[in-house]
Design a protein that fits this description.
Length: about 450
């Protein structure tokens, strides 16, 4: 029996619209931010008669505009001494062209639980080291690169790269102005800001914001387009509905639908692994290395074809939920508090919840979301036991543990194989699988067998 994936019958839009929830979390936005942004942006495209090729490029730019958002999370956390997601949540509602508003934003967000002296010190840090254009450039350039890795058009990448430019030239990262800003970027920039206001304060206040930022942040002609549909209340009701992701299908250009075969789905998994690993300097290449280890363990244990592919995809995406965890926790050099342990312990739950919304990744969701489960049922987040944990899930778990122990972390240096064995061997039986650990021993002593690029045949980007 052939799967939809084998016939290439899965729309790429189905995959990325569901995966965009992970990007929403990283930006500190409520679930559906990117989808609602896309819903509005495509309505604008229809109103101005955008050609089909441009509408297709815009569609993916709107859904994936935040692909680079994790790359500046650690820097934001350092600058503000605060939760990076909270800091980012307030970002798009602030008028940065006003020094008063910018200062209010900084004072509102620095070290919220700190003393007056600590907050004053952090404000100085932001003033001295907070290069806004550098943060924007890191985010936008990285997002554009990942969009191209996904095989999307240059127009999509350019829209993401110029997302935060402003009509008056006071945006970033390069200060483009007016018609020098790509049209798709102008639409996306307006749509994403409007959505943040729309979801937080409602339609009337959002329209007021557009009026105030017309010809400063936004293309005045595009502002007028949005204001012309102000009284189309059925549209705004649909945009606010829980079914907006389903409704989005009607806005995808039918003549430019991109299908996702097995190789493109591999590419999606690898691309999102890069988004995940960019979240913290301590997890650089973690997901890709876990995938390479897991792929080798699967090979040693005789897995081939779709079974092997599922292991590699699950390993690439196992930490997807960490996009919803603050860098104040992920990068903390000292021990975690009880509350912080609870919070970081939620990441496999987030991973599982996001991936099971992607039809093509539902099997992967079960494997990726189980990497902190134990054979004795004492793991998390679902308390699964041995009979519920297939060997593929056991492989991802051991690959994750081994990779994490073998590299530097904020609270300790990398461990040797001998030290790793001292930690892992006592857990054989209650926590980890002895058969998979034996495969790990073979892998470590023999060395890598199958490079990750061979496991994911559709991906050749460095």
């Amino acid at each position: 029996m052939h799967t939809r994936e084998e016939h290439g019958e899965i729309r790429l839009s189905e995959v990325v619209s569901a995966m965009s929830h992970a990007l929403d979390m990283t930006e500190g936005q409520p679930e559906g931010h990117a989808v609602r942004t896309c819903f509005l942006g495509m309505r604008i495209a229809g109103e101005i008669g955008l050609p089909a090729d441009d509408r297709s490029a815009l569609f993916y730019a709107l859904l994936l505009k935040d692909l680079g958002c994790s790359s500046n999370a650690a820097k934001v956390c350092y600058l503000f001494g605060a939760d990076d997601q909270t800091v980012k949540r307030d970002l798009k509602t602030t008028d940065w062209s006003s020094l008063t508003h910018a200062f209010q934003y900084v004072t509102r967000n620095v070290v919220p639980d700190g003393s007056a002296l600590r907050r004053a010190f952090q404000i100085v840090t932001v003033a001295l080291e907070g290069n806004t254009n550098e943060l924007i450039q890191t985010r936008c350039e990285r997002g554009a690169q990942i969009a191209q890795m996904l095989g999307l058009s240059t127009a999509t990448a350019d829209a993401i790269r110029s997302l935060d430019e402003h009509w008056d030239g006071r945006g970033g990262p390069t200060g483009l102005k007016r018609l020098d800003i790509p049209l798709l970027a102008r639409i996306a920039g307006l749509a994403q800001t409007f959505e943040v206001f729309f979801s937080s304060v409602g339609l009337v206040e959002s329209m007021d914001m557009l009026h105030k930022r017309r010809a400063r942040w936004f293309d005045p002609a595009l502002v007028d387009v949005v204001r012309s549909i102000e009284h189309d209340y059925p549209f705004w009701d649909r945009m606010a509905s829980a079914d907006v992701r389903t409704l989005l299908v009607e806005h995808e250009p039918r003549e430019r639908i991109i299908m996702a075969d097995a190789e493109r789905l591999d590419t999606v998994a690898r691309a999102f692994a890069k988004v995940i690993d960019a979240k913290s300097p301590w997890t650089f290449n973690h997901s890709e290395q876990v995938a390479e280890i897991a792929g080798n363990l699967a090979t040693i244990m005789g897995m081939r074809g779709e079974q092997h592919r599922s292991v590699v995809r699950a390993a690439l995406l196992h930490d997807l939920g960490k996009l919803g965890i603050s860098n104040r926790i992920l990068d903390k050099p000292a021990g975690l508090t009880a509350a912080e342990r609870v919070e970081i312990g939620r990441h496999p739950e987030y991973t599982h919840r996001i991936l099971r919304e992607v039809a093509a990744f539902r099997d992967v969701a079960e494997l990726a979301g189980s990497h902190h489960e134990q054979l004795d049922g004492c793991g998390y987040h679902r308390g699964l036991s041995a009979e519920d944990l297939p060997v593929e899930a056991r492989i991802v778990k051991i690959a994750d543990i081994y990779q994490a122990l073998s590299v530097d972390r904020p609270y300790r240096g990398a461990l040797s194989w001998e030290q790793i064995q001292e930690i892992m061997v006592p857990d054989i039986g209650p926590s980890i699988c002895g058969d998979v650990f034996n495969a790990l021993r073979v892998y470590v002593e023999r060395g890598a067998i199958t490079p990750l690029e061979s496991a994911l045949t559709g991906f050749r980007v460095a």
